[in-house]
Structure formats: structure tokens, C-alpha cells
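User: Can you predict the 3D structure for this chain?
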Amino acid sequence: MADKAHPRFVTPYKYAQLCGVSDSAIYGRIERGALEVVEEQTLNGATKRYIDTDKFPPSRLNDYPIEYKGKKKKK
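Assistant: Here is the predicted structure, written as C-alpha cells:
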């Protein structure tokens, strides 16, 4: 079975699904500047953000969780 072609522009949520990570990981990459977004105006005046999948092809991304070590017990 051939792989389905992904759409040219996808929302950050859909991009996260394609990459296999959480949407907060994608939003974090957008804030750090690792991913660029294209902003478009909708008919009702709202701004939608899209990621260009030709420029940033979706692939499996490593989503390293932040380890919480908790409070240290006094010995």
C-alpha cells in the first residue's frame, strides 16, 4: 500500500499527530523558532496558523519528557 501524501499546510495540532508527539511539543518548537508558521486570515477575521509540510516534512520527532525529581529526602 502506498503512503498517502500529506497536505501542503496543516495546523500545529495535525502536524503533532503526523509527527507522533504532543501538540504542546510542537507549540514549544514554534515558540523557540525551530518551526515556522504561516498565518492566514479567515473569512470571519480570525487568524489561523499553519505549518508548511513541504518546508518542514513531518517525521517522527523525539519528545523528551521533563523528569521531575521531586523533593530530596533528608538523610
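The first helix runs from residue 12 to 19. The radius of gyration is 17 Å.
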